[in-house]
Amino acid sequence: MIQSRLALFASGLLALSAIAATALAQAPAAPQPDYHPSFGDLMTFAVQPRHIKLGIAGKARNWDYAAYEASELRNAFGRIGRTVPVYRKQALPDMFASAILPSMDKLDAAIKAKDGKAFDAAYKEVTTSCNNCHTGLDHAFVVIREPTASPYADQNLAGKAEGAKAKGKSK
Ligand code: HEC
């Protein structure tokens, strides 16, 4: 008798939880708030790290990676221009085209030619272009410089050179 009452109670609980689950499934999903990155956000996470990695890789003459990262940086400027089409009443894609892309073109040519000296000169020009734009848009206090060390401890930006050294050591 007690057993059958318990069984009844248990099946009642099961039914209740099934109803609760259905109610949950049918509740309209709360809308996810959209994240709209600001220009400063995009500079911080799409431009700055790539400028650093590009500099470290280029100085190590890691041309395959430098070619990849130069293209990533260029495409980031393209995406930022589409995300923030107008900044201070000026078309941002046009600003990138005049402020930074000419120096990026020189960088690409140097990487393609595997010309270390030309890379160093073009990278310097890219970095100056970053700062010229910051100054021109009232952000002169955002000062970019050439990185001297990589903050990315988990990534080999030097490419083969560093890999070869590590291999030699382990022998
Ligand atoms: C078209 C002009 C322009 C170019 C080119 C440009 N920037 Fe910027 N950058 C800005 C502006 C404007 C801000 C300030 C954005 C804001 O906070 O509203 C900024 C902000 C920044 C910041 C500040 C983020 C922070 O919180 O400290 C960094 C870092 C940065 N830029 C890196 C770079 C680097 C590296 C380059 C070159 C590879 C570059 N920028 C090229 C316009 C530019």
Secondary structure blueprint with pairings:
Blueprint: H1 2-26, H2 39-59, H3 63-83, E1 86-87, E2 90-91, H4 92-99, H5 101-112, H6 116-136, H7 160-170
Antiparallel strand pairs: 1-2
This protein binds heme C.
Q: How would you describe this structure to a colleague?
A:
This protein is mostly helical. The protein has a domain at 39-136: Oxygen-evolving enhancer protein 3 (PsbQ), four-helix up-down bundle (Four Helix Bundle (Hemerythrin (Met), subunit A)), CATH 1.20.120. It is built from 7 helices and 2 strands. It has helices at 2-26, 39-59, 63-83, 92-99, 101-112, 116-136, 160-170; strands at 86-87, 90-91. It has a two-stranded antiparallel sheet. Helix 3 packs antiparallel against helix 4. The protein starts with a helix and ends with a helix. The model is unreliable at 166-171 (pLDDT under 50). The structure holds heme C. Heme C binds at residues 39-40, 43-44, 47-48, 51, 95-96, 99-100, 126, 129-130, 133-134, 137, 139, 142, 144.
Q: Give the topology string: H per helix, E per strand.
A: HHHEEHHHH
Radius of gyration: 27 Å
The 3D shape can be described as extended
Q: Any idea of the CATH class of the domain at 39-136?
A: Mainly Alpha
Number of strands: 2
- Assembly state: single chain
CATH architecture of the domain at 39-136: Up-down Bundle
Structural class: mainly alpha
Q: Helicity level, as a percent range?
A: 55-70%
Major sheet: arrangement of strands: 1-2
